[in-house]
């Protein structure tokens, strides 16, 4: 089944709020070889004007995963996960994610294109905090390889 | 590694002292299979192509691959240390152009060079362009970090 072109423009239900924990931030920071004390030490983070330890720039992918799972589970999507390759990724931040944030992500499919037998699906996960303010938008393009590719 | 290990954050670079083409940070990071397992746990991405040779081979890959998001996450770190505060990153994008094969014994080496690509004095931002390579080949395309310096 090819990727359903009618996915374009589809918006999904907001995810359950994700509570960003301090130890999770530290764990993720270690995993991406981050060294800034602002990721690890609440005092250093506060001295720099943050409420708590600051997550590395790519941390929102942890929350974004929940939205991409919604997309892949969509019954009429036609996306075969075993054929999916991550094409590109972008994060646009209104502010950095900090421990204590409760992030809710809403996914929208912004583009479905076919290119040389492959389908390219671009999905945007918009994340807001508990007050409803925008924190970061994570944009992914998934390349779904066609039968011959 | 930059000298960012003190408890206080380093000073923010001065936009006016920068020129397009300046190399602002460089780093080489050694990746091992352990790094991939650690990232799998931290990120929740347990796709077995990142830790099982048999699964990687069965889907036609040249070996176990680093998560693209791990490469992306590591590549921005020299810039984070240079600007002094991860919150100064306003936008970050990459294109995954070539996989990073991580040998079970020898691992892989990621080389990162961060160069000024564009300066906007009015907005107080700089675009830092990353060149990220492994085994002599570039692995990320259009890797750009917008940082707020004012």
TrEMBL record, chain B:
Residues 23-116 form the MaoC-like domain. CDD domains: SAV4209_like. Pfam families: MaoC_dehydratas (PF01575). InterPro entries: HotDog_dom_sf, MaoC-like_dom. Belongs to the enoyl-CoA hydratase/isomerase family. This is Acyl dehydratase. It comes from Agromyces rhizosphaerae.
